[in-house]
Design a protein that fits this description.
Keywords: Repeat, Signal. This protein is α+β, with helices and mostly antiparallel strands and 274 residues long. It contains five helices and twelve strands. It is elongated, with a radius of gyration of 19 Å. The structure holds 2-acetamido-2-deoxy-beta-D-glucopyranose (4 copies).
């Protein structure tokens, strides 16, 4: 069970995320299996390389989600990649192209990997990825915008209607994605996003999001302006004020690879760095 507390300190112009937990640093990096590693000349590696190379374009042309496999028999590799809707198209395509390309550097030899980044999630495995809510790892980010004053009572009162709309919406959405808003006194609105890995059924998605909404009171003091809970199967975020959502394209769009930059900090899972 991993847990990482990240604090967001927002000023008018700049956003700085600090990682407040030093003792469990490993938990913030991708979850790389360490037993039964594949070798450099194995068929598993060939299949993995083929799958990882195909994922960016496959997801880019499929509404920013793709689940597939490569190879056959004992060396078959299963994989999945998906963008989160609170990052824009540029950030999504960037994550789709970089995460698969670099995961073998981060987890060399690992037969099974789960990795979450700011803008996307990537998994691969020697066995089919279970279409069930994976609640084993959870990160949460407490966001505080010092320019916005909120009350614990107000925030908690807004969670009720917002979470209920998100929970209903995410389960009925084919994209397994719902964004919504609810009035927040003196600051117009509280916005929220709920998103599940698109391979999950409505009921698995619903139980994943519900397990997160049930923990809001425990994870967030309430006097903070926003929060996010992210795991390998689902994602929940709320914020007093507007939250920008980018829905995946409905018509297939060719992926536009981004030039590499030295700033791909997302690969360390103390990721919410920006
Ligand atoms: C997309 O988001 C990134 C930050 O994640 C930002 O730097 C960039 O300007 C945004 N691009 C567009 C086109 O909005
Ligand atoms: C398997 O690979 C991982 C890196 O992905 C490494 O940390 C681990 O030590 C390796 N395990 C063995 C037994 O070599
Ligand atoms: C959800 O996000 C989309 C895309 O930004 C936006 O057009 C829509 O109004 C949002 N829906 C709600 C209920 O906030
Ligand atoms: C929120 O409340 C906690 C105590 O519950 C307190 O330690 C913290 O300083 C408060 N934060 C803000 C931004 O007021």
């Amino acid at each position: 069970m991993a847990s990482c507390l990240l604090l967001l300190i927002a000023t008018a112009a700049a956003v700085v995320f600090l990682c407040a937990v030093a003792s469990d640093q490993d938990d913030k990096t991708p979850d790389c299996s360490s037993a039964d590693n594949y070798t450099a000349d194995s068929q598993y590696k060939k299949n993995l390389d083929q799958l990882l190379a195909a994922l960016p374009a496959a997801a880019g042309g499929n509404g920013w989600f793709y689940q597939g496999s490569a190879g056959a028999g004992a060396d078959k590799v299963f994989g999945l990649i998906m963008c989160y809707a609170d990052y824009n198209a540029t950030a999504c395509l960037d994550c789709l192209s970089r995460a698969p390309a670099s995961i073998t550097t981060v987890c060399p030899g690992s037969r099974n990997v789960r990795a979450m980044y700011d803008a996307c999630v990537l998994r691969y495995s020697a066995t089919p990825i279970p279409a069930t809510a994976d609640l084993s790892v959870l990160y949460h980010v407490v966001m505080t915008d010092h320019g916005v004053s909120v009350t614990t009572e107000g925030v908690r009162a807004a969670w009720g209607p917002l979470m209920s709309k998100l929970t209903d919406g995410v389960a009925s959405s084919l994209l397994r994605l719902a964004n919504s808003s609810t009035p927040y006194p003196s600051w117009q609105e509280m916005d929220g996003l709920a998103q599940c890995s698109r391979d999950l059924s409505a009921s698995e998605c619903s139980s994943c999001i519900k397990s997160y909404t049930n923990r809001l009171g425990e994870l967030f003091p309430g006097n903070n302006t926003g929060g996010a809970i992210k795991g390998y199967s689902c994602y929940l975020r709320y914020q007093v004020g507007a939250l920008e959502i980018t829905l995946p394209p409905t018509t297939p769009a060719p992926p536009s690879p981004q030039p590499p930059s030295g700033k791909y900090l997302m690969l360390h899972a103390c990721t919410f760095l920006s």
